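Human: Note token order:
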Amino acid sequence: MYTFYALLNRMKLIERWSLMRSTTKEDLMQHAAHVAIVGQALGIIRNIYFDGNVNPEKIAALALYHDTAEVVSGDLPTPIKYYSPKIKGAYSEIENVINKKLLKSLPAEMSAEYARYIQPDEETVEYKLMKVADKLSAYIKCIDERLSGNREFDTAFNRLQRQLDGLVDEYPELKFFLDNFGEGYGQPLDIL
């Protein structure tokens, strides 16, 4: 019996932002889908407007699997995950063990294929754009919460805004996205 897909199906049970009061709950599966959408957009923008040569579909696929270890570990809150280099290293080690277990829950031939997404080469442009999309997705979540009157997300919003501001020179597709699509977030449906 192989359990890979049953394990991934549990992504919908993993709540994100668990230490914060949210007006709208977000689960890991929703987050992965949003990172895939935004990441694919960043790749397309790079290729069209910045003479890029990236694979937007690979960015989307990397996004779908970027947090799969959390089906076992749960979503460790950011303040804990990055509290110290020692904790961050230990958590990375835990994620590696879980990801190996996930890959063993597939037939060997399929495991080799999925390893490209679950244990990707972190030096590729596609992986780096997916990580930018991950931050952008969290930032958009903060926008949604703040527009609902939830001040609980102010600190995370400010932290993520500083992080994204620090990335726009290296990733012009991020600036393009924010300048051209960012204002739409928080608009009522009648205006969209």
